[in-house]
Specification:
heterodimer, A: about 325 residues, alpha/beta, Rossmann fold, seven-stranded mixed beta sheet, five-stranded mixed beta sheet, 14 strands, about 35% helix, about 20% strand, globular, B: about 325 residues, six-stranded parallel beta sheet, two-stranded antiparallel ribbon, 10 helices
């Protein structure tokens, strides 16, 4: 890849800048995204470059942010709304789940709804239970939304650009523990929504994991490789609609499936993938699949507790070993 | 400055529009009681002057959002009555292909961005439509209808605050019909004059007799001109009355004795007809003829639309995503 070096955070800002440059109808709105450059510094430089009309600071009003994005999209613009923390989506849940997601359907396809909603998600930084959730599973039961969750700078850049160009409402979850992650982005490059990537090939066990869990799975895969367990690691990248085909094809090859997620098990993407494989491809399985999930509790604050709350490298490696041995 | 005076033809068109809404709603109620309309209906009889007066100000490029009690606003914007009724009947050629129904009548081609069935939700959407006008430097406005009950939900506060801080060309028309669902407004709201809520947003406001179609038109015109001139949003409280219950078969037994009768004496269509006769625009006989014509037209539409085809089964999978 002939890219330029960038952190995940810089990749976000670059994607926003490139899309605003390419299309005058694209604009950003959100809390502190203007002169302040965003609380996570993902909009640094945009205000200076594109001005206050296109990089709009809002009051702390998540319902109004999402509702205004919908209204702007229905009248021809392509808004990119930032909700700061994914946890705040709860405040705007009506606008996201009832208005944005259902608009096209309920109107019989009269309009497209090209709204992108960015939010910073994820645990590991001591933000406690109301500022650390990955929150992706909240949206999976709401037809009409797309949800993507990049793990690398290249994906943060390419998925966000695809999201902004997509005519559907797309939620882009940026993992706050990955903002400093280094990598490369290819200016002009796009990463398609709804397409998983086989990050690492192997024939013993299929492991599906996005974002922070993908990185931990790479480390765990290295660990078990020494014992002869070859992990095929898949990053779904988009969780709605999830690329079940790529996962199913891998399971056909390995006969084993582990999903690793930074969220509780109930009603989750990992549980959905396992249910799907069990329902449609049971014959491909040589062993019961496993879901390595976060604990079924709110996210605790204290470091030793938070560390244990979500799957650690060790827990992931143990889980993979267990499934591989069955 | 006041609103451009309506020609006799325009006045008669407004009268016909109010009658169309009244007859349409009476027909929807009949069909609901015959179990032909599913789910719920929230009827607009008694409030016609608000929708017709306000929408008479809107022009090409302007947008409107309304609520689940939105049949009147949608018709006042010029949506065809047959496709509107067809949507309420869940027909394939309804405004939304039968996937929205009574609470979600939408006709984007006419600036009708939709009927929103979660209280207050449309106020934020109207902010976005108004923002588009600002963004593109057009003089379009966006008008939102909502009920008195919506002034107590969070989105009302967020949307009005946002509209004020961004000086959006938005017109917020609160139809105070005295009841939020089954509860009298006084039991849920500590102030009597809802227009006063605008002061906390530094926003212009006005209260108007919502049963006087020309008075509504006048104040909405003023608000629209403010918006078009970049002077920001306005909150209008239109005092009116819901002549029927909240929804479905609600008999509205919670109303005090004599209240309905007093408001029926101030029925907006009656008041407007009186004004038209006084101005010499039409004779009582001519107005009675219009009434008969509209009744026949709605009856004809109803008979016709009931025979329209149902949606194809596969249609349920369409338009979830692009």
């Amino acid at each position: 890849m002939s890219g330029i070096p960038a952190t995940y955070r810089e990749a976000v800002a670059l994607a926003l800048a490139d899309e605003m440059e390419a299309d005058p109808d694209v604009f950003c709105l959100g809390e502190d995204i203007g002169a302040a450059g965003g609380v996570f510094k993902t909009t640094v430089g945009l205000f200076e470059r594109f001005g206050p009309d296109r990089v709009r600071d809002t009051p702390i009003s998540e319902q109004a942010i999402v509702g205004a994005a919908l209204g702007a999209a229905l009248t021809g613009l392509r808004p990119v709304a930032e909700l700061m923390f994914a946890d705040f989506a709860g405040v705007a849940f009506d606008q996201i789940a009832n208005q944005l997601a259902k608009y096209r359907y309920m109107s019989g396809g009269q309009a497209t709804v090209p709204v992108t909603i960015r939010m910073a998600c994820g645990a590991g930084l001591g933000f406690a239970a109301q500022h650390s959730q990955t929150a992706e599973n909240w949206f999976l039961n709401v037809p009409g939304l797309m949800v993507c969750a990049p793990a690398t700078p290249a994906d943060a850049y390419g998925l966000l650009r695809s999201a902004i160009r997509n005519d559907n409402p797309v939620i882009v979850l940026e993992h706050k523990a990955l903002y400093a992650e280094k990598g490369e982005v290819e200016p002009g490059g796009m990463v398609p929504l709804g397409v998983a990537e086989v990050v690492r090939e192997g024939h013993t066990v299929t492991v599906a994991a996005p974002q922070q869990m993908r990185h931990r799975c790479i480390a765990a895969a290295d660990e078990v490789a020494a014992e002869g367990v070859e992990v095929e690691l898949i990053d779904p990248k988009t969780l709605a609609p999830i690329d079940m085909e790529t996962i199913a094809a891998s399971v056909r090859k390995t006969g084993r499936l582990v999903c690793v997620q930074e969220s509780p098990a109930a009603g989750s993407w990992g549980a959905t993938v396992i249910a799907h494989i069990a329902e449609h491809a049971l014959d491909d399985l040589d062993a019961p699949p496993a879901l390595i999930a976060a604990d079924d509790t709110p996210i605790p604050y204290a470091a030793p507790l938070e560390d244990l709350w979500m799957p650690t490298e060790e827990r992931i490696a143990d889980g993979i070993r267990r499934v591989a041995a069955l | 400055m006041s609103a451009p005076e309506l020609s006799p033809a325009d006045l008669l068109a407004a009268h016909r529009s109010m009658l169309e809404i009244r007859q349409f709603e009476d027909e929807v109620q009949r069909l609901f009681l015959q179990n032909v309309v599913r789910g719920s209906t929230h009827l607009y009889q008694g409030q016609e002057a608000v929708a017709v007066g306000a929408c008479s100000v809107l022009r090409e490029g302007d947008t409107m959002t309304c609520t689940y009690r939105g049949h009147g606003a949608v018709l006042a914007m010029g949506a065809p009555a047959d496709r509107s009724l067809a949507e309420i009947l869940g027909k394939a050629d309804g405004l939304c292909g039968g996937k929205g129904g009574s609470m979600h009548l939408t006709d984007v081609s006419r600036g009708i961005l939709g009927s929103f069935a979660i209280v207050g939700a449309n106020l934020a959407v109207t902010c976005g439509a108004a923002l588009s006008a600002t963004y593109r430097r057009t003089d379009a406005i966006s008008l939102a209808f909502f009920g008195d009950g919506a002034t107590n939900i969070g989105t009302f506060h967020e949307a009005l605050n946002l509209a004020a801080i961004w000086r959006l060309p938005a017109v917020f028309v609160c139809e105070n019909n005295l009841y939020g669902e089954y509860s009298p407004i006084a039991s849920t709201t500590p102030i009597e004059r809802l227009a006063d809520r605008a002061t906390s947003y530094g926003m212009a406001s006005a209260q108007v007799d919502g049963n006087d179609v020309l008075a509504v038109r006048e104040v909405v015109w003023e608000a629209a001109e403010r918006g078009r001139a970049g002077e920001g949003p306005m909150l209008i409280e239109a005092l009116t009355y819901r002549q029927r219950g909240h929804s479905r078969t609600d008999p509205a037994a919670y109303r005090p004795d004599g209240e309905l009768e007093r408001w029926l004496e101030r029925d907006p269509i009656l008041l407007f007809e009186r004004a038209l006769v006084e101005r010499g625009v039409a004779t009582p006989n001519e107005l009675a003829t219009v009434r008969t014509e509209v009744e026949r037209e709605i009856k004809r539409i109803s008979d016709e639309v009931r025979a329209w085809p149902e949606p194809r089964p596969e249609a349920r999978f369409e338009d979830v995503l692009v």
